[in-house]
């Protein structure tokens, strides 16, 4: 143990922050796996209509989160071990990884803010394409497939239609929407467009809050790592 006094205090604070960072990586990994296997999103994103798969942008984002969570756990362990061992090499590697992760997080945050409505918009367009076929008065194979797609949307989200309720949809509404009790449940009669936007907005808020907390931790970790590296370099034992 070469560092003493305030430097030793910073060493243990850095170890504690790295442990929190490691835990945060585990939380992100767990949240990403939950988002991947969430019953609502999975049932919607596994749908197929006329050979087209439901948009997979959300799943791609989740896979990126899984990778980030795993990398954070590795980097957090590296920082903990480097702080306890007072290794400039490990701490330097840890600092470099933190800078790269922080830059990636900022870039991902900007991309996510710009494209925050992309996932819900893609699914709404997919829903509308099935909706048009399902209200077709002519009974065809395509209409039957579209009706099954809409039934999954309506059962999963507890919604019914786009909110406009045109006469063609009203004619087939009883078979496409969940069974309703009287009086009509306002949740079930709600527009599927609104439900889809709310579904992904809630999940984006969870991801955004987690990213903000982690960014703050990373900033303090970078500061403490630089201070500790300087203290180790100036310590008489080294």
Automatic annotation (TrEMBL):
Q: How does it sit in the membrane?
A: Multi-pass membrane protein
Subcellular location per the Swiss-Prot or TrEMBL entry: Membrane
What Gene Ontology cellular-component terms does the record carry?
A: plasma membrane
Q: Where are the transmembrane segments?
A: 12-36, 56-78, 90-114, 206-232
Disulphides: 159-192, 160-177
Classify the source by domain of life.
Answer: Eukaryota
Extract the Pfam families matched here: Tetraspanin (PF00335)
Can you tell me which family this protein belongs to?
Answer: Belongs to the tetraspanin (TM4SF) family.
Under which name does UniProt file this protein?
Tetraspanin
